[in-house]
Amino acid sequence: MSETDERIPAHMQDLPQSDGKSSRVYGIIARSAHRAILFRRGPSRSTRLLSWDLKSDTIEAGQWVRARIYERRCDLSPDGKYLVYFAANYKPPLDSWTAISRPPWFTALALWRKDDGWGGGGLFDSSVRLRLNHRPQPYRDDIDEWSLQEGFTLPKWLTVEPLHEHSGWGEDDPIEYMRLLRDGWRFEDNGSVDTEHNFQSRYWVTFDPPRARSKPLGKSRNDAPLLRVQLHGIKERQGRWLVETADVVDAGGAALHSLGRIDWADVDHQGDVLYASEGRLVRLRINRARDGLTFESRLIADLNDMKFKPIRSPSSAKSWK
Asked: Which band of pLDDT confidence, cut at 50, 70 and 90, is reported for residue 221?
């Protein structure tokens, strides 16, 4: 163990290393529909958008894009019909942009130029109101982030407003943080201390103890177990950008079932845990029995073998109706 590695917190010493090769999967669940969308990234900046029917557990594979999708700055309308996403290729004429589309298609119904990697994306407060994380006033003479690009229009029923008084700034925070709070997650204030290491270390930044958030698996019982996600570090060498684990815990925080390393995890409308690990989608069902809880895990899909190819969107993806 190197001198640098000796400063890695004890809770991270035995974490399994990511293989660095499997696809990265991140999801967003619609608030009022049994639907989720998935961003499947890899290799590099190739990303595919997929739609997940949470009733039938069927996956509809949609469009690819050769761009970096900042999935943690994205959101779904409550009914799951529209997606707001932030993307970048850092090439003219746009460099980066925020768009609204109909998943599982990236084809833009509305598009705003962003130009840089700050801010971007947005939040659907409702099916008819979007808060856009762009600067409402020009910050440079040649960049107007607020006006729609030529050829795009908004329907009369959709209102677009600035995210907040500092709209247009930040990175994944504030969008992801605000979305997670809205969707029932609670963040623990556990006095976590972050430590920056050099780039020869296994991790660039570590957190001790891990930063944690939790979400109940049921709404009707005060003693319902919770899904807990813990952020251990940032920028794993030859691995993931975020080093996260997840487990199911009881109301007092005691671990009941470990999910291990994950790329994404959330709770669906039935109280099941949905998560992605090393490119595989899993549904975890928690059942109550007389002698306690039982855990039933089922593989939904392995998304690792997908390869980029141009896919035309259907005509239905090009209309607001």
From this structure: low
Neighbours of 299 (CB within 10 A): 9
Omega prior to 104 cis, within 30 of 0: yes
Across the range 48-60, mean pLDDT stands at: 97
Residue-number span of the structural domain to which 157 is assigned: 22-183
Task: Indicate whether 106 belongs to any domain.
Answer: yes
* Contact (CB, 8 A) for 273 and 227: yes
314 part of a folded domain? no
Give per-residue pLDDT as tens, 144-162.
999 999 999 999 999 999 9
Q: Which residues are CB-neighbours of 210 under 8 A, at least 6 positions away?
A: 11, 192, 230, 231, 232, 245
The tally of domains found in the chain comes to 1
Query: Tokens 């932030």 identify what position?
Result: 86
Identify any residues that bridge with 258 across adjacent strands, giving them in sequence order. 247
CB 16 within 8 A of CB 23: no
Domain-located, residue 313: no
Per the domain annotation, does 220 fall within a domain?
no
